[in-house]
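Hi V.,

You were right to ask for the full record rather than a summary. Here it is.
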Amino acid sequence: MNHWKKSIHSLRGFLLLWVSQSISTIGTAMTDYALIVWIYGQNGTASSVSMLTLCSFMPTILFRFVAGAVADRWNKKYIMLAADLVAACGSLVILLLFSTGSLTIPALYIITFLLSLMNAFQVPAAYVATSLLIPEEHYTRAGGLQAFSGAAISILSPALAGVVLAWGGMRAVLLVDLCTFAVAFGSLVFLRIPTMRAEAQKGKESVWQNCLTGFRYLKAHPYMLRLILFIAAVNLLAKLGADGQLAAFVLSRSGDNHVTLGLVQSCMALGPMVGGLLVTIGKPSKDSIQMVFVMCCCIFLAGIALPLCRTPAGWCVSVFVQYLFAAVMNVHWNTVMRSEVPPELLGRVYSTRDTLQNGTIPLGLFLGGWLADHVFTPLMSHESAVRKALQPVFGTGKGAGMAVLFLLVGVTGLVLSMVCMRSPGFRRPEQQADEPKTE
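Predicted structure:
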């Protein structure tokens, strides 16, 4: 009990930020859901919803390097306050336009782009601020709490938004969003976030030079760069497989059964919640880098089991386990970042990391769909010796081709994870020095 009391006391600043930002994120997620419903109700096209998603992601891709440099150079608290204030103004503008009947889809695209632009700056600032508030021995535990809340929000926000929409319509959802912004803003005003040396020296380098600092740091620390490229490869494989095509796989295997898809997706969302909770209450690992590789092996093992299952229960268990391990892996990967990178460089290295490791996601999504439609589905649809050999394992009909693709992805990812786990090049320099030399 005394241990937990000491932990809570040392984490009180982080806990205040975590709770208030989680409340704000729930409001934002509810608004996002309500706006998707509203847009789809205007013209009933999927492209209009896709364009909204594009507007919300593009600023993150385009401005992440600059945002990381700004997060290191300027006061994190002021950046987060400004981002929250602009976000609240954006929700207020949407509320006013909706209340006067003036809200249009193009206007919503513009507002979403601007809000996402502010979020691009807030995310690295919040990441660095969180790191400054957490004692090093609690990096993993705090990461578990963040993973738990992120998964819980993804599950709860659509349901909450649906209830509020049925009760009070779009206005009620936007008002709830503004209230959650007020909670986050008020808590942040009174929160003391330590400053860093880089903030006092912000005039010594240009913003462009600061943007390149993340690359320079990774070049000087090759094992960190290799880890990032490994995660980029994992992301590519994940999007080639179930992480990018789970809905299509389940629907094709279940005869377009939406209830089955809902059950599988619910288990997928529960995985990170349980994983975050286990990391929070468990004992931190002594070697977070090793845990990243171990968890990736477990992820791909579960990924191999998924296409071999023929029942909804098997799919539910497979995706639950897969996403549980993914949450644990992400927590330890963030622990590696916070432990290895100096605080004054964390924003820039974090931004560089995210750009590099997430840059493979669009390619994986594109290739996964193309391979499923044009290579593996035809392979399992036409008579051939290969189909005859694979049919006892994967069956026939819709989804059999995707199952073959998922298995290949799982095997490739497992082999890659095991090879990299045993490679000295992915370890810290002091660990490499301890490696026994072979003749």
